[in-house]
Amino acid sequence: MEVAKTVRKVVARHAGVTTRLLQILIEVQDELSWLPPAALSCIAQALKLPRARVDGVAGFYSLLYRRPVGCYRILFSDNITDRMLGAPALMQALCTALWVERGKVSEDGLVSIDTTSCTGLCDQGPALLVNGLAIGRLDAARIDTIAGLVRGRTPLADWPRELFQIDDNIRRRGPLLDTEVPPGAALAAALKLGREGWLAELRASGLRGRGGAGFATARKWDACRAAPGAEKVVVCNADEGEPGTFKDRVLLTRFADRVFEGMTLAAWTIGARLGLMYLRGEYRHLLRPLHEVLARRRAVGLLGAGILGEAGFDFDIDIHLGAGAYVCGEETALLESLEGKRGTPRIRPPFPVTQGYLGRPTVVNNVETLAAVALIALRGGADYAARGTASSSGTKLLSISGDCAFPGVYEYPFGVTVAEVLADCGARDTHAVQVGGASGVTLAGDEFGRRIGFEDVPSAGAFMVFNRSRDAFDIAHNFVDFFAHESCGFCTPCRIGTVLLKGYMDKLASGYGAKVDLADIEWLERLLKNASHCGLGSSAPNAVVDTLLKFRPAYERRLQSLEFEPAFDLDQALARARQMTGRDDPGAHLETLREDTT
Amino acid sequence: MSGQFLLDGQAVPFDDGQTILEAARAAGHYIPHLCWHPDFPPHGSCKLCIVKVGGRHVSSCALQAADGMEVDSSSAEIRGERRTLLQMLFVEGNHFCPSCEKSGNCELQAQAYEHEMMSARFAYLFPLRPVDASHPDILLDFNRCIFCELCVRASRDVDGKSVFALTNRGIHKHLVVNAESGRLADTDFSVDDLAANICPVGVILKKRSGFKVPIGERKYDAQPISRVSLEDES
Ligand SMILES: Cc1cc2nc3c(=O)[nH]c(=O)nc-3n(C[C@H](O)[C@H](O)[C@H](O)COP(=O)(O)O)c2cc1C
Ligand code: SF4
Ligand code: SF4
Ligand code: FES
User: Fold this and answer.
1) Is the CB of residue A183 below 6 angstroms from any atom belonging to ligand 1?
2) Looking at the CA of B193, which ligand is closest?
3) Does a structural domain hold residue B102?
4) Residue ranges of domains in chain A
5) Which CATH architecture has domain A473-556?
6) Mean per-residue pLDDT for B104-116?
7) What are phi and psi of A550, to 5 degrees?
8) In a designed cystine with B186, which of A481, B14, B173, B179 is the match (CB 3.0 to 4.6 A)?
9) 3-state secondary structure of A4
10) Residue B5 near residue B71 (C-beta atoms within 8 A)
């Protein structure tokens, strides 16, 4: 039987290790195009896991399918920036060209088309994934080409290479993007200082994590080094799921050596032998080049046993793929996912530095943090701290997209004002800026003098620009949809609260909002912020909070009445019946009926 | 090591490692909970046990008590938030209490009374959740599941069977049973399993025993859950 054979082969490739469950599911799906019930049963059997658990993991990740999908699975990136660049119309055009309804499989089983959360190509959108591979810069011509290739059943391997060309768009360089770090040089420099001396440099650099929370890197490493337990672990968080963020993609494309060197430095500092990189599924095109870099480093003794000739310095790195779950960027959900489980955030404390991957002391760092560490080893802590501000030292990569002439990656010293950034990226007539992605801050015009930094406007790297033609409500609405889609569903406030919030935003968008809805929205926001189990839920209402405060007219314009208004639209309720009967004449609409009788 | 903290102004002693909720119970104070169970490690999902410590909201079932903590568990703000969490759970599922066999024995219903929840406040989501009546002794009515995972934990960690697991994500999250057919009858589930006797709401129901205890004489009919819960333990 084909399914059983495929499963046996893939499971053997992973030596039947249960922590590889997600990787096994991904690879089995690669071969079968979806995960039929029999495949899940076979995998469970082969790994000696309960079948329900395998089903539970497969069901968690949105890029895994337990129902048949098309031979070509096309997913349009649904970030607000993609929408602004015309993604909805392009998706509709492709649906029409291929005779398929969004969210369904074409009748011949050839193709299915749907949307997915931001794929990290906002500087070259609109973007889509076809069978997991990214295509950017979509326009009518590219949609035509893709439709033709699908209709002609051209194997993906034979699609024109230039379709899959992804640009780095580095627009502004600072020390991080400009300094040559020959492989091994940063490690050698740190080794020369000894662990204490090196940690002192790292402390002096003032480096804080670039993944969002801004925790001091030296403190994290110190704590992990001091934690009891011999088998420590270094994890690189390359999940980069925050809408509008793509700087880690560029670092992994152009500076992978530096990131791996940062991981190796962490390993030497804390005494770890195992390194894991968690790469978001949307960046799968980077998997092979990254493995090539790892192989090169092994070949020259920068990974493996006795690194740089140092006895006992043994360390190697493996890469795990994600499969479409923003919450897996949260470090404890990421660890669960690495262990082959559902990506549900853990109770904290204990923190990963004492109990992380498989209960072992673990350092989790963002890609950019690790790249900066390598730079600090090479040039010293004081040199690093010379840039930036007192509480945000060094430089920060910004992923700039939206309404600007030059979207791409920019390196700035912390403390740069929003206005300076806007001028550099060629933004004109700017109405609002979303800093830090969907979970970040919405800034209005009178705030463009504020500075990027942990003490003022923190940012994990996203910087989305909106000009006067945009509506702040649409921005918040898009983000609310995103969080409802990405909530892991573990805790009550976020699982249900994000969906209720979406309901209110949908109600407002369709013109049935009332003033009491705004009060309910504000109450939900507070509960999400206060009671959520992890940062996803507590930051989910941020954009609504900010836009309600700073762009309130965008909401009030949509209120039909200031009092109560039912969300139920009688005429809309007939839509299904109209579709089934193929009718759309005036007699099939309530509004017109009512007019007729008056 | 041990110490004491203040719960709504009252001193509560604790032993090292005890959570706020455990120490409070031991001292005879009730903090509401749904997913917490005395025989299992904290789960932290329902959030009914939220309290405020030093101005921050925390899950009292999961956070260890510390000396000198000032814990607010009964302010109007906290009670209001708990009520909203209950309203959310009610609109998420399909809870028709008057026709539910668990009525009067149901912790969700009892919490709603405890928190003076008068309406569901939000729009019902009316999810489609088919029941599973395949098993000879047990009926599964998923419409009432609140995802406390007690059945999952009991079956896995005590019964050693892993009959239940969660699948899907977010609002689409739901329980599955350990069989390719998706039917409880095709698992090794038994009416004597701990998992068959632990559901706080009306999902996992024993057949042929419905309404043996009449409504009005049930667990939470005469006394509020805050009292019953503490008596249970002593
Ligand atoms: C919902 C959520 C998503 C996150 N996504 C990411 C991510 O994609 N990449 C990342 O580095 N950190 C992400 N984080 C932050 C991580 O939890 C963690 O703080 C970070 O990886 C630590 O690395 P750093 O100290 O180098 O910043 C996320 C946090 C939350 C709550
Ligand atoms: S806040 Fe949301 S994402 Fe985080 S644990 Fe709760 S349900 Fe999951
Ligand atoms: S079936 Fe009952 S015990 Fe199991 S998760 Fe749902 S509510 Fe909890
Ligand atoms: S009882 Fe603490 S979160 Fe459920």
Assistant:
1) no
2) 3
3) yes
4) 2-60, 72-156, 172-385, 396-470, 473-556
5) Up-down Bundle (1.20)
6) 97
7) -100, -20
8) B179
9) helix
10) yes
Gap between the Cα atoms of B92 and B123, Å rounded: 9
**Residue closest by Cα to atom 4 of ligand 1:** A329
Domain boundaries, position B18:
2-74
Cβ B176–A347 below 8 Å, yes or no? no
Residues in chain B: 234
pLDDT at residue A597 is higher than 70: no
pLDDT tens per residue, range B153-166: 999 999 999 999 99
Rounded to two decimals, the ipTM of the complex is 0.97
* Across A11-34, average pLDDT: 97
Same domain, B152 and B187: yes
Indicate which CATH number applies to the domain containing B56.
3.10.20.740
What CATH number does the domain containing B152 carry? 3.30.70.20
Distance from the Cα of A445 to chain B's closest Cα (Å) equals 32
Residue of B nearest to A65 (CA): B168
- Is the CB of residue B91 less than 8 Å from the CB of residue A496? yes
- Distance in angstroms (rounded) separating the CA atoms of residues A150 and A583: 32
- Mean pLDDT of all residues in A62-73: 96
- pLDDT at residue A559 tops 50: yes
Q: What value does the mean pLDDT of chain A take?
A: 95
Contacts of A499 in chain B (CB under 8 A): 125, 170-171
Beta carbons within 8 Å of A109's beta carbon, 6+ residues apart: A68, A70, A71
Residues 31-70 of B with CB under 8 A from A: 42, 44-48, 50, 57, 59, 62
Residue A595 has pLDDT above 50, yes or no: no
pLDDT, residue A562, reads 60
Structurally, chain B folds into a number of domains equal to 2
Tokens representing A391?
A: 């509480």
User: Could you tell me if residue B222 is inside a domain?
Assistant: no
Q: What is the DSSP letter of B6?
A: E
Q: Say whether residue B74 is in contact with chain A using an 8 A CB cutoff.
A: no
The angle at the Cα of A463, spanning A535 to A511, to the nearest 5 degrees, equals 75
Same domain, B91 and B152: yes
Q: CA of B193: how far to CAs of A101, A197, A574, B181, B187, in Å?
A: 46, 58, 48, 21, 12
Closest-CA residue of A relative to B83 is A527
Same structural domain, B68 and B113: no
Which residue has a Cα nearest atom 18 of ligand 1?
A: A331
- Whole-angstrom distance, CA of residue B101 vs CA of residue B93: 16
CATH architecture, range A72-156: 3-Layer(aba) Sandwich (3.40)
pTM to 2 decimal places: 0.95
Tell me what pLDDT residue A566 has: 65
What whole-number distance in Å separates Cα of residue A139 and Cα of residue A141?
5
Closest listed residue to residue B37, CA positions, set B215, B207, B222, B198: B198
Q: In this structure, are residues A247 and A461 in contact, taking their beta carbons and an 8 Å threshold? A: yes
At residue A101, the 3 state secondary structure works out as: coil
Chain A residue with CA closest to B81: the answer is A527
Q: Does domain A172-385 have CATH number 2.70.98.10?
A: no
At residue A586 the predicted structure's pLDDT band, cuts being 50, 70 and 90, is confident
Task: Name the residue among B208, B85, B32 with its Cα closest to residue A495.
Answer: B85
- CB A249, CB A290: distance < 8 Å: no
Between chains, do B50 and A530 touch, taking CB under 8 Å as contact? yes
Distance A480 CA to ligand 2 centre (A): 14
Each residue's pLDDT tens digit, A89-113: 999 999 999 999 999 999 999 999 9
Protein residue with least CA distance to atom 1, ligand 1: A536
Choose the closest CB to B122 out of A38, A500, A530: A500
Least confident range from A72-76, A517-521, B182-186: namely A517-521
Q: How far is A280 from chain B (nearest CA, A)?
A: 17
Contact of A495 with chain B, judged by CB distance below 8 Å, is answered with yes
Give per-residue pLDDT as tens, B169-184: 999 999 999 999 999 9
Show the tokens assigned to A313.
């310095």
